[in-house]
């Protein structure tokens, strides 16, 4: 019997080993392995991410997770300065507006793709056409549909013709467009190019193991000089607690979106630090005028603004990690103008409600919130409910799964109030147009007079005139108490102490700009 | 025998079709996926255009008919998000899931059968009591918590094992333990109780009286007769391990089917969800079919009808 049992065990063990060596799940080595003992040879970085990229082809998926990963492989034509938000040339050297419908871009010469082919006007045209081509089902298409044609004028000059005035074209180019190699994509087909990307960016593709990791290495012929950190790995760890453990144990060197209640733990670790910046993403409490409820009355909306103490929410729920917002736009937005905040004044709130004909004691409102989409979102909702309770209003908090929440907002099914975020937003137009018109449900507020003004301002080609218009709109929106502005989110990154990393307002994570100290 | 096989194959087909049908209608209840994929500033006409391009604007029954027509030919469509072949994406994750499920199963069997047999044989001894207590704990601990506990101890504190990821044997240790914990407890208890039943039987007493040595008594007489219910349980659990390792896969960042399915559900990537359900239902049905065949092999008394 003993012998038989032993044999059985041996058999089973060999089976396990056989299963393991199939190499089916790919082989990944931990960061400490890659970096050597105690990080002696520091030219690698492992970045923890919550999920896999949807695809590695550019200009297709708008999801942040995808964009953050492929942005090291592809270059944009134009980028934004991380601090000022101003446009800076990348693969396009200059751009000018010929007339309301025509734009001309001069491109950089001598730039090579990872496979050795030249970057030129054809590549720029191809990348824009890729978005517009229905067959590619690009999720960006809706933003680019006003483009009529892209013309190649010479090897390094393109002209973009729009079907109607498109003042925010440069914004679109900076935020969306990444440049692909037409020869390569046509050669191998989009399916292959989605798995093995070729760009002009600072890092070239090495290996992608789905749901596991993406490995990149520095492109030595990069036009702006090779990267200091030579190897980059994005590792996918869906569960937050595991991500935190992986960071603490040194398997990963950084990750984004540290919850406010974990900040202390990371800061107390001697090898770690928190990098924080006020992001271009704002959180707010929307007051729906789209349904026939009390929020249709401006006095009720003003009362809400007086009854909710945003400073208290920031301190008590977010531990101070957020920047208070007073109007419809954050300071980062071009066209921002300073507006007065509503004071926290519960007595005034009660008065306003009475003037509007409501008795706070008998008011019952619903507040919809997602769970885990924004920092402490459902906790913030609970705290708002408690604050409104102070003046007698009963608030039922309805916690939704994110997809369901978004759909409820889109379908205008929310009765009274909801929590939502918006961004990253840099320009006044996209925020104001999408949030405060009848067509955009994200704040569920619109007012006919204001709406007309918004559309008129959008069409203005003169920048100063346009900004004046937006300033007036912002003031009017505050008077109308269109929503209860909450805060600019704080983007928090857990980072190794000796990594030189500066968080960017646009949430981009660029290893090219990072380096290891010492 | 052939009749039996044909009958069971038809049953497998029906089970899979029913599972697909139920899931098809259930996930539609979660709503329309289009807005989740487009940028938030996409105007309503664009969303409508996209929705009709993806076919979500058609009546549900038409969508169902179309889906079934393609599904029986093995075409589940492309992932809405990555545009890759949905079935291909699921199959790509299958080996990793198999690897984990089988190692967990093997580990459970290696531990639980000897443990259960000994426990039954030394009934009411200290050993038995400890074993029973451990199995109660094993069944009661949620795998989510147990997994995180292991990560906390072995990855974050001791730094001897990776917190997750796929690949080498080292990466498999913690997820295998987590996944096996429940099965070990279940199998041990079950083996113990079936063994106890068998040990009370007349033929065991007779064998004992006629001087059959103890190891032989256990192996040839008692264990063999306890195997049938154990095989049923193992077959059921293997199905669960293969399809239901969602939590373990997510906690340990294991690149398997469970994790893909969960993510696709949250993203409302319907084609992947359906392709995944198809594969899991198929595996489940096939395993049960194989278990039925095994009964006959282990115990010729069970005649195949």
From TrEMBL, chain A:
Localization annotation: Cell membrane
BP term (GO), one: peptide transport
Record-linked SUPFAM superfamilies: Periplasmic binding protein-like II
GO MF term set: peptide transmembrane transporter activity
Keyword Coiled coil: no
Main location: membrane
Keyword set includes Oxidoreductase: no
Region forming the signal peptide: 1-18
Pfam families: SBP_bac_5 (PF00496)
Domain annotation Solute-binding protein family: ranges: 86-439
Keywords assigned: Signal, Transport
Gene Ontology, cellular component aspect: ATP-binding cassette (ABC) transporter complex; periplasmic space
InterPro entries: Peptide/Ni-bd, SBP_5, SBP_5_CS, SBP_5_dom
Recorded topology in the membrane: Lipid-anchor
Annotated family: Belongs to the bacterial solute-binding protein 5 family.
Official protein name in the record: Peptide/nickel transport system substrate-binding protein
Annotated source species: Edaphobacillus lindanitolerans
UniProtKB/TrEMBL annotation, chain B:
TM region(s), chain numbering: 12-31, 96-118, 130-156, 168-185, 226-252, 272-298
Keyword annotations: Cell membrane, Membrane, Transmembrane, Transmembrane helix, Transport
Protein's UniProt keywords contain Transmembrane helix: yes
Pfam families (alphabetical): BPD_transp_1, BPD_transp_1_N
A single cellular component GO annotation: plasma membrane
Gene3D superfamilies recorded: MetI-like
UniProt main location, coarse: membrane
BP terms from Gene Ontology: transmembrane transport
Domain named ABC transmembrane type-1: residues: 94-291
Keyword Cell membrane: yes
Membrane topology, as annotated: Multi-pass membrane protein
InterPro entries assigned to the protein according to its UniProt record, in alphabetical order: BPD_transp_1_N, MetI-like, MetI-like_sf
Subcellular location: Cell membrane
Family in the record: Belongs to the binding-protein-dependent transport system permease family.
PANTHER family assigned: DIPEPTIDE TRANSPORT SYSTEM PERMEASE PROTEIN DPPB-RELATED (PTHR43163)
Protein name: Peptide/nickel transport system permease protein
